[in-house]
Amino acid sequence: MSTVRLTTAQALVRYLCAQHTLVDGEKVPLFPGVFAIFGHGNVTCLSEALEAVQDKLPTWRAQNEQSMALAAIGFAKAQRRRQIMVATSSIGPGALNMVTAAGLAHANRLPVLLLAGDTFVNRRPDPVMQQVEHFGNPTVNVNDAFKAVTRYWDRIVHPEQIVSSLPQAVATLLDPADCGPAFIALPQDVQEIAWDYPEAFFAETVHAIPRPRPDRERLAQAIDLLKSAKRPLIISGGGVRYSGAEKALADFAARHGIPLCETIAGKGAVAHDHPAHVGPVGILGSTSANALAAEADVVIAVGTRLMDFVTGSWSVFAPDARFLSINTARWDATKHRALAVVGDALETIAELEAAIGGWTADGGWTQKGRDEFARWNAALDDFQRPTNTPVPTYAQVVGVVNTHAGERDLLITAAGGLPGEAVKNWRVKEPNTFDCEFGFSCMGYEIAAGWGAAMADPSRTPVVMIGDGTYMMMNSEIYSSVLSGHKFILIVCDNGGYAVINRLQNAKGVTSFNNLLKDCRVKELFGVDFAAHARSMGALTRHVESLAELGEALEWAKTTDRTTVLTIVTDAFTWTPGDAWWDVGVPQVSPHESVREASRQQTEARTRQRVGV
């Protein structure tokens, strides 16, 4: 067996460079790049290995470990999980900064490879700088924190171990059922050790994402259940997009007269005006989809984990509704006593189509979906119509941005008031042009994801929408995007604090406290000039005072050669209706009658929840 002598770090990098995949029939690198902040633990051995392969595996310098890993995830979402970025940090705080990003990837079933430096296996220098010591267990350090938020975790304590570990990490990253973040800890002394690796380990490999087909007996049961339905409803989840099943599901719904609604992650699988589309469902949903969900007798959930914002904490469906769940993940497919069809969405839909024949839903039910959606669209027109109020609403701002966005431009948002307002008000022009990260609802994802998405597809412009709170939490990758030349357009809606949480606080009877800046303990209340701040990081910027100015600024932003930031003051108290109920904790004892009443309402609403697992 022929071998090649390499350090552990060099062998790891060479293996990554040898992995390829197919995207739209074209062979491309499985790992197209690395986001890195170097420090002790990765600045000598790993950086030395990466520097040597810049032409094959480019390294991008970031400003914050969390945001660079979020950029990697934004890249993966834009590529619909078909390519995977790497993020590497030093030990200690550098590694811990990536834990939040790992949690986001884990919650959303998204692939990212995380490499962190680690302490010395030989323990000779212990304790090293930034080492957190556990007196009763010296094998534990901060990297163990990733165990709770990764699908694959390993610590390499001998050079040979990567021969078995790396293929397992890649298999996890590509597994449609088990997809999520993979983490590998790299002790400093192990990275430097040379070993004779078999050359076969570095052979070029072209990966194909597997498409598991459904069990035939379960499929037959699914067809029987669907044919028994009088009022079927399809819920299209994020898994539909990752399977590439958007058109197949849309055609299936239209051909058989089944109304199709979307989850937050699934929004964008179909264009807004698709004949079967009835809008988003759940807490951030539309009155149309929620009205149909309340009457549906069979719910076909495709590629969704059915989180509480989709199900209205399991209150939006009829108590006797039956669920047919199509999912590659058994865990997701079996929720709420569903008839679980475990399989790839595209393969399963094709087999359903072949077996179901000419069956269609009742024409009256199909028409009800169209009528409800028409009413919802008329309501959206009203919500978005400009008025003479001094401060525009979120709906009006979203409407203007939507109007001026190109057909292929990608809308990105994640936290605060914008997810609800964008999910409801954004009318998707082409499939796969909408990214609302709400599985983790991570403040700080948006700007970083804009950078990653721009890197993933230079042929379109990401349009990122955030609030002032999110901007203050994480904005440094504006600078990174300017440095690297990956343009996105950022709209900052300044509503004076954490307005959507203030809304929830008030809705449950609690007095406004510590959310809007005016309700916080401050010495002096003043606003931030976000445009000036972004300008200092190299972005082009404008502050606008009206919806008309915003439209003009958006047209200008399309012509610029770098990341462009637009800021506008928005209303903190006006929201688009359509919400379903949400189960949150409300104090059962309080001196405030408003809280006691909210508690009574919460208790009564819980009687309408479906009981399941």
From TrEMBL:
InterPro entries from the UniProt entry: DHS-like_NAD/FAD-binding_dom (IPR029035), Myo_inos_IolD (IPR030817), THDP-binding (IPR029061), Thiamin_PyroP_enz_cen_dom (IPR012000), Thiamin_PyroP_enz_TPP-bd_dom (IPR012001), TPP_enz (IPR045229), TPP_enzyme_TPP-bd (IPR011766)
Thiamine pyrophosphate enzyme TPP-binding domain: residues covered: 416-567
Pfam families in the cross-refs: TPP_enzyme_C, TPP_enzyme_M, TPP_enzyme_N
Domain named Thiamine pyrophosphate enzyme central: residues: 219-352
Keyword Amino-acid biosynthesis: no
Keyword ATP-binding: no
Domain Thiamine pyrophosphate enzyme N-terminal TPP-binding positions: 34-130
Classification via NCBIfam families: myo_inos_iolD
Protein name: 3D-(3,5/4)-trihydroxycyclohexane-1,2-dione acylhydrolase (Decyclizing)
Assigned keywords, A-Z: Hydrolase, Thiamine pyrophosphate
Family in the record: Belongs to the TPP enzyme family.
Sequence segments annotated as region (Disordered): 592-613
Alphabetized GO MF terms: 3D-(3,5/4)-trihydroxycyclohexane-1,2-dione hydrolase activity
Annotated EC: 3.7.1.22
Basic and acidic residues compositional bias, start-end: 593-607
Top-level taxon of origin: Bacteria
Lineage of the species this protein comes from: Bacteria, Pseudomonadati, Pseudomonadota, Alphaproteobacteria, Hyphomicrobiales
